[in-house]
Structure formats: structure tokens, C-alpha cells
Amino acid sequence: MARANRHFISGYAWHLTHRCHKREFLLKFAKDKQRWMYWLFEAKKRFGLCILNFTVTSNHVHLLIYDTGNGNETIPKSIQLIAGKTGQEFNSRKGRTGAFWQDRYHATAVATDDHLIRCMVYIDLNMVRAGVVKHPEDWPFGGYRHILAPPKRYRLTDNKKFMELMNIREIGRLREAYRKRVDSAIMRGDIKRQPQWTESIAVGDKVYVEKVKDQMGYKAIGRKVVENGDSFVLREPQVSYQSVSDRAVRLQPEDNTIYWQNRPDNYLD
Questions:
Q1: CA–CA separation, 35 and 56 (whole Å)
Q2: Spatial contact of 18 and 27, defined as CB atoms under 8 Å apart
Q3: Which of the chain's ends, N or C, has fewer CB atoms near its CB within 10 Å?
Q4: What SS3 class is residue 70?
Q5: Is the pLDDT of residue 250 over 70?
Q6: SS in 3 state form for 185-254?
Q7: Residue 118: how many CB atoms within 10 A of its CB?
Q8: Please, are residues 257 and 106 in contact by the beta-carbon 8 Å criterion?
Q9: pLDDT surpasses 80 at 43
Q10: d(CA 61, CA 158)
């Protein structure tokens, strides 16, 4: 199993995407989405996971986090806890066996400038894009509500870190600006899928993406910095979420897609 901490670089924001096994709708019930959020909160408490945004859909999750550098095990331990406990509880309740998650999750480094806001908006518009809700404020299993009107208990998003990254001192100003960005995207109809957020290794301006590539060292061999509209991306040599057998046949070098073996001995108590 590839170790996630070999891919994460401290001081970066990371957009993680993780799909259910065979893209099945294993998270279709509210109780399962809520349990994923519960374990996300536990990861925040136990390991200090810095959460910027998230959304839980019926067959996959999005999670935007910031690696504060407080030990290189924070992210992998957090994902192991969240994914492991969610799958374990579901299988136990349903009398089910087998993998709950697709065996790897994908990580994309996101520049902490306007690209970060764009990624957050993309995450929040997921269920609008799917036609489930008209506005992210209507989706109870996402980070939008935690940013605009955080609950008194079980707060998930680190709005102070968000303010720090955006160089905004007043939380009211941050919330107003973010609401306007989301509303503007909806009014423009700018809700289509944008693969750069889920299929790239890094997204940002050219300097940022080249810096990520340099810091990845030998792991960046074969990756190309490609212009993508008004941004640049560090591109994967193959499509994300391939089957493991396809990956083995192609013999591609290790990328930034992290394997997750969903077995009982990998769960954290």
C-alpha cells in the first residue's frame, strides 16, 4: 500500500476525492453521510486535521484540507480513520462484506490564491451540478453552511485558516465575498464539471505548479506542466480512478493517487 504522506507536501492545500467501490451509491442515506461527517470531526479532534471545505454525495466525497505541517501523518491517519470507520459501520449495519471505497483516493495540490476559492466553489456546487439542490445552502452534507453559518457545536471547517490564506481579517467580509462567488457562479450557469480539480496533481499559476513538481522530485518524472485556461496544471500520465489491473498492465510510475486497502487490520480505533 502506497503511503499517503510520501505525496503530501507541508504548507499546501489539498483537494481529496474518494469514490465508493465501483461508484456504487453506498452513501445514499442521510445516516451514512452523517457518519462520514462525524468521523471527519473526529479526525479534526484527534489529529488536528485542518478542514477548509467538504461535501458528501451518494457515491463519493470531496475534502479540501490544509497541511499545516504538524507531523506528516496527519492526513493519511485522518483519511484512514474516516474511510475505515465509515465503511466498517456500513458493512456491520448491512451485514455486508467487501470493500466500501474504491481502493485509492486522489490528491490535488491547490494554490492558496484565487484558485483556492474556485476549488471551494466547485466543491460546494457539486450537488447543484447534479441537479439535487438549487443552492449549496440547501445541502446539509457540505461545508457551505459551516463557512457561512457555522454550528455552535461540531464545527468542521477552519474558517480562521481560510481567512489567513485569503488575507481577510473580518469573518463577515469573508462570508459575504464567498457567498457572492457561489451565487455568481450559479447565475452564470458556471457549474459544469472541471476535471482539473479531480484529475491533476497540482492546480495554480505556472510558478506554483512548477514548484510542486520540483518538490515532488522523482515522483514528478513523466508529469507535464500544462496550460489550462487561465491556470496551469501538473498533469497525470493516465486518467485517475483506473482499475488496479489496468494500472499494473500499463506499468505507469507511481502517481499522486493513493491506494486504500479497505481491510479490518487497517482501521483505527
A1: 10
A2: no
A3: C
A4: coil
A5: no
A6: HHHHCCCCCCCHHHHEEEEECHHHHHHHHHHHHHHHCCCEEEEECCEEEEECCCCCCCCHHHHHHHCCCC
A7: 21
A8: yes
A9: yes
A10: 18
